[in-house]
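stuck on this:

***
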Amino acid sequence: MAPLRLGTRGSRLALWQADAVRQALGGADATLAAEDAVEIVPLQVAGDVDKVRPLADYGGKGLFTRELDQALADRRIDLAVHSLKDVPTLFGSDVTLAGVLEGEDPRDVFISPLAPSLDALPVGARLGTSAPRRRALARALNPQIAVVNFRGNVPTRLDKLARGEVDATILAAAGLKRLGLLTPAMRIMTPDEMLPAVGQGVIALVCRAGDEMMTGLCGRVTHQATLARITAERAVLEHLGASCHTPIAVHAQPAAGDGDRLHLRAILADPASERLARAQASGPRAEARQLGLTVGAMLREAAGADLLRDVL
């Protein structure tokens, strides 16, 4: 029987994630446990070719997923492995989100040889990031810093920081942990300091629409609590029609004292005025999508027409 082909980006982190999916599939189906039963197929994607320009300048998050989606449509792969935060909110008609593995730590990490925390960076210090969310929230926390575009995979950005191209950067804890690069000198930021991105730390499985065999298989490895979390978070984006340009942070976690409920927080930021609009609510985990739509509506009201016009 031909091996099941997992499509992925070729970065070290992406390959780690694909191997995690391979292991999960082997654990769920004995026929996929053999060494040659699942083939990892690295593909070059547009977002990894040009590592200089901001993503939003030439297509945004879809640049990390389009080639894999096309490979699915062309039947060159059977399943695509993505970082969920790179996956656009709305799918085309050819592919669908088939499942998610259990999420890793969704928080961000502050890294700098100059200061122990973001708010301690001196006037004019250069924070490197390409994420509109991190840019806006960082400036809100410390308006004295300069934020510069900063792209590349995790090891590349750490190397650039070590060479002094920037004075500080912010990376996802999930990627650092998966690659064994998180050190005591790095500071994990609380959600109050830097609310995470939608789906941060979650590995997504995407297959062809209508592929019942792949959908069923992915369902067997899907972590239901993580699925509820990302369903709520992505529903906020859905309500607002947010895109890769949108400086928005959304984070769901179990409500205090009740694991069957989610508490969802969202922030929409205006980088120009540094104004932040906030919304939060709790609801049953079984009604995660409705909770997200509700918080999206609350955030829209809190933002007002002027902020929405500027950032959406």
